[in-house]
Write a structure and sequence with these properties.
single chain; mainly alpha; Arc Repressor Mutant, subunit A; 0% strand
Length: 200
Protein backbone atom coordinates (compact mmCIF):
# COMPACT_ATOMS: atom_id res chain seq x y z
CA UNK A 1 0.00 0.00 0.00
CA UNK A 2 1.38 3.40 -1.00
CA UNK A 3 1.94 6.39 1.24
CA UNK A 4 -0.93 8.88 1.34
CA UNK A 5 -0.41 12.43 0.13
CA UNK A 6 -0.79 13.71 3.70
CA UNK A 7 1.73 11.17 5.02
CA UNK A 8 4.19 12.15 2.29
CA UNK A 9 3.87 15.81 3.36
CA UNK A 10 4.42 14.86 7.00
CA UNK A 11 7.43 12.70 6.11
CA UNK A 12 8.99 15.58 4.18
CA UNK A 13 8.36 17.96 7.09
CA UNK A 14 9.98 15.45 9.48
CA UNK A 15 13.12 15.35 7.34
CA UNK A 16 13.26 19.17 7.18
CA UNK A 17 12.76 19.51 10.96
CA UNK A 18 15.46 16.94 11.79
CA UNK A 19 17.88 18.50 9.31
CA UNK A 20 17.26 22.01 10.66
CA UNK A 21 18.26 20.94 14.19
CA UNK A 22 21.41 19.20 13.01
CA UNK A 23 22.41 22.02 10.66
CA UNK A 24 21.98 24.69 13.31
CA UNK A 25 23.80 22.69 15.95
CA UNK A 26 26.77 21.48 13.91
CA UNK A 27 26.79 23.35 10.61
CA UNK A 28 25.55 22.18 7.22
CA UNK A 29 28.89 20.78 5.97
CA UNK A 30 29.41 18.69 9.11
CA UNK A 31 26.17 16.73 8.66
CA UNK A 32 26.17 13.88 6.16
CA UNK A 33 23.26 12.27 4.38
CA UNK A 34 23.49 9.04 6.40
CA UNK A 35 23.19 10.97 9.67
CA UNK A 36 20.36 13.09 8.28
CA UNK A 37 18.26 10.14 7.20
CA UNK A 38 18.91 8.24 10.44
CA UNK A 39 17.90 11.25 12.57
CA UNK A 40 14.67 11.63 10.58
CA UNK A 41 13.94 7.88 10.67
CA UNK A 42 14.24 7.29 6.92
CA UNK A 43 16.43 5.27 4.59
CA UNK A 44 18.46 7.05 1.95
CA UNK A 45 15.97 5.76 -0.60
CA UNK A 46 13.17 7.33 1.43
CA UNK A 47 15.10 10.59 1.50
CA UNK A 48 15.38 10.67 -2.29
CA UNK A 49 11.62 10.25 -2.57
CA UNK A 50 11.39 13.78 -1.18
CA UNK A 51 14.62 15.56 -2.16
CA UNK A 52 16.84 15.18 -5.21
CA UNK A 53 19.98 16.16 -3.24
CA UNK A 54 21.31 17.48 0.05
CA UNK A 55 21.37 20.95 -1.56
CA UNK A 56 17.63 20.67 -2.21
CA UNK A 57 17.09 19.75 1.44
CA UNK A 58 19.24 22.67 2.62
CA UNK A 59 17.15 25.03 0.46
CA UNK A 60 13.93 23.61 1.95
CA UNK A 61 15.34 24.01 5.48
CA UNK A 62 16.28 27.62 4.75
CA UNK A 63 12.85 28.43 3.26
CA UNK A 64 11.14 26.90 6.29
CA UNK A 65 13.43 28.73 8.71
CA UNK A 66 12.86 32.12 7.04
CA UNK A 67 9.07 31.63 7.01
CA UNK A 68 9.11 30.60 10.66
CA UNK A 69 11.25 33.57 11.63
CA UNK A 70 8.91 36.00 9.85
CA UNK A 71 5.91 34.50 11.65
CA UNK A 72 7.72 34.65 14.99
CA UNK A 73 8.71 38.27 14.38
CA UNK A 74 5.10 39.24 13.56
CA UNK A 75 3.79 37.39 16.62
CA UNK A 76 6.32 39.16 18.84
CA UNK A 77 5.25 42.57 17.56
CA UNK A 78 1.59 41.69 18.07
CA UNK A 79 2.25 40.46 21.62
CA UNK A 80 4.15 43.66 22.45
CA UNK A 81 1.34 45.85 21.16
CA UNK A 82 -1.25 43.82 23.08
CA UNK A 83 0.70 44.62 26.25
CA UNK A 84 1.17 48.27 25.24
CA UNK A 85 4.92 47.66 25.24
CA UNK A 86 7.51 49.07 22.85
CA UNK A 87 7.94 46.31 20.22
CA UNK A 88 11.41 47.49 19.18
CA UNK A 89 12.71 47.48 22.76
CA UNK A 90 11.19 44.06 23.46
CA UNK A 91 12.70 42.63 20.27
CA UNK A 92 16.17 43.87 21.24
CA UNK A 93 15.85 42.59 24.80
CA UNK A 94 14.75 39.15 23.61
CA UNK A 95 17.37 38.92 20.87
CA UNK A 96 20.23 39.83 23.18
CA UNK A 97 19.15 37.59 26.07
CA UNK A 98 20.89 34.56 27.52
CA UNK A 99 17.80 32.47 26.67
CA UNK A 100 18.07 33.34 22.98
CA UNK A 101 21.83 32.82 23.02
CA UNK A 102 21.25 29.26 24.30
CA UNK A 103 18.43 28.52 21.84
CA UNK A 104 20.51 27.74 18.77
CA UNK A 105 18.07 25.11 17.45
CA UNK A 106 15.00 27.37 17.47
CA UNK A 107 16.41 30.88 17.74
CA UNK A 108 16.78 33.42 14.95
CA UNK A 109 17.93 31.58 11.79
CA UNK A 110 19.56 34.74 10.45
CA UNK A 111 22.19 34.45 13.18
CA UNK A 112 21.96 30.65 13.30
CA UNK A 113 22.96 30.22 9.65
CA UNK A 114 25.18 33.30 9.30
CA UNK A 115 28.41 31.30 9.35
CA UNK A 116 27.18 28.69 6.85
CA UNK A 117 25.21 30.64 4.29
CA UNK A 118 28.03 31.78 2.01
CA UNK A 119 29.00 28.12 1.41
CA UNK A 120 25.48 26.93 0.58
CA UNK A 121 23.81 26.46 -2.79
CA UNK A 122 22.35 29.38 -4.69
CA UNK A 123 18.73 28.66 -3.74
CA UNK A 124 19.54 28.58 -0.01
CA UNK A 125 21.63 31.76 -0.29
CA UNK A 126 18.77 33.53 -2.08
CA UNK A 127 16.29 32.43 0.57
CA UNK A 128 18.57 33.72 3.33
CA UNK A 129 19.09 37.05 1.55
CA UNK A 130 15.34 37.49 1.07
CA UNK A 131 14.72 36.63 4.73
CA UNK A 132 17.34 39.15 5.83
CA UNK A 133 15.90 41.90 3.61
CA UNK A 134 12.41 41.15 4.91
CA UNK A 135 13.69 41.35 8.49
CA UNK A 136 15.21 44.77 7.79
CA UNK A 137 11.90 45.95 6.33
CA UNK A 138 9.87 44.71 9.29
CA UNK A 139 12.31 46.21 11.78
CA UNK A 140 12.22 49.52 9.88
CA UNK A 141 8.42 49.63 10.36
CA UNK A 142 9.04 49.84 14.11
CA UNK A 143 11.28 52.90 13.71
CA UNK A 144 9.84 56.38 13.83
CA UNK A 145 10.28 58.73 10.90
CA UNK A 146 8.94 59.49 7.45
CA UNK A 147 11.97 58.70 5.29
CA UNK A 148 11.85 54.97 4.37
CA UNK A 149 15.53 54.85 3.35
CA UNK A 150 16.66 56.37 6.64
CA UNK A 151 14.46 53.97 8.63
CA UNK A 152 15.92 51.03 6.70
CA UNK A 153 19.49 52.25 7.31
CA UNK A 154 18.79 52.46 11.04
CA UNK A 155 17.19 48.99 11.01
CA UNK A 156 20.24 47.52 9.24
CA UNK A 157 22.64 49.10 11.72
CA UNK A 158 20.65 47.96 14.76
CA UNK A 159 20.18 44.41 13.52
CA UNK A 160 23.82 44.08 12.49
CA UNK A 161 24.89 45.11 16.00
CA UNK A 162 22.43 42.63 17.51
CA UNK A 163 23.64 39.71 15.39
CA UNK A 164 27.30 40.56 15.99
CA UNK A 165 26.86 40.69 19.75
CA UNK A 166 24.88 37.45 19.78
CA UNK A 167 27.38 35.55 17.62
CA UNK A 168 30.43 36.70 19.58
CA UNK A 169 28.72 35.86 22.86
CA UNK A 170 27.82 32.38 21.57
CA UNK A 171 31.35 31.87 20.28
CA UNK A 172 32.93 32.19 23.74
CA UNK A 173 30.16 31.09 26.10
CA UNK A 174 31.73 27.70 26.83
CA UNK A 175 35.32 28.92 27.02
CA UNK A 176 34.64 32.10 29.01
CA UNK A 177 31.04 32.47 30.29
CA UNK A 178 31.80 35.76 32.04
CA UNK A 179 33.10 37.31 28.81
CA UNK A 180 30.09 35.93 26.91
CA UNK A 181 27.73 37.58 29.40
CA UNK A 182 29.69 40.83 29.23
CA UNK A 183 29.44 40.89 25.43
CA UNK A 184 25.71 40.22 25.56
CA UNK A 185 25.01 42.76 28.29
CA UNK A 186 27.06 45.53 26.71
CA UNK A 187 25.68 44.77 23.27
CA UNK A 188 22.13 44.99 24.61
CA UNK A 189 22.86 48.23 26.45
CA UNK A 190 24.44 49.86 23.38
CA UNK A 191 21.69 48.76 20.99
CA UNK A 192 18.97 49.92 23.38
CA UNK A 193 20.74 53.25 23.75
CA UNK A 194 21.04 53.58 19.97
CA UNK A 195 17.33 52.77 19.58
CA UNK A 196 16.14 55.34 22.15
CA UNK A 197 13.65 57.66 20.51
CA UNK A 198 13.39 55.52 17.38
CA UNK A 199 10.03 53.96 18.21
CA UNK A 200 6.88 55.79 17.10
Amino acid sequence: MGVSKQQAIENKQAIVASAAKLFRDRGVAAVGLTELTKAAGFTQGGFYNHFKSKDALVAAVMDDAMEGAAAQFAAGIEASRAKAADPLRRQIEWYLSSDHRADIEAGCPLSGFAGDVRRLGEEARQSYAQGLASNFNELAKMIDGENPQEKRRKAMALFSQMVGSLLLSRAVVEADPALADEILENGRRQVLRASDGMSP
